[in-house]
Amino acid sequence: MLESVSSVLNFDVGVERIYFTQGAAPPAVEFLHLATGKIKTIAPLDKPLAWGLSISPDKKTLLFAVAEQDNADLMLVENFR
């Protein structure tokens, strides 16, 4: 099972706010309002977070990633040519 990702990559700084994610359950995107010091959840999520978060230059759009799958294929190929 994928865990929620808390990373130095999961934040971005706006003019009045710092947008970030925390490695807590349930996962969410939040912001810290610099003037008040209060934290507000702006996007509760139903899937685990992946790496990265960015606010658009006009501060109207926030981009972040969620993990869609929690599996991988691993194969051992002997005598491969």
Write a compact overview of the structure shown.
With 81 residues, the chain is mainly β. The chain contains no helices and 6 strands. The chain has a domain at 11-66.
Characteristic terms for this protein:
single chain, 81 residues, mainly beta, four-stranded antiparallel β-sheet, 0% helix, elongated
Indicate the proportion of strand residues: 35-45%
Mean of all residue-level pLDDT scores: 79
Distance between the termini: 35 Å
**How many whole angstroms does the radius of gyration measure?**
17 Å
Strand order, sheet with most strands: 1-2-3-4
SSE pattern, N- to C-terminal: EEEEEE
Number of beta-strand segments: 6
Structural class: mainly beta
Biggest sheet architecture:
4 strands, antiparallel
The backbone outline, from C-alpha atoms, is elongated
- Percent of residues in helices comes to under 10%
Low-confidence parts? 1-5
- The DSSP helix count reads 0
Structure overview:
This protein has 81 residues and is mostly beta strands. It has a domain of 56 residues. The protein has no helices and 6 strands. The strands form 2 sheets. A 4-stranded antiparallel beta sheet has the order 1-2-3-4, with no helix packed on it. Strands 5-6 form a two-stranded antiparallel sheet. β1 and β2 form a beta hairpin. The N terminus is likely disordered.
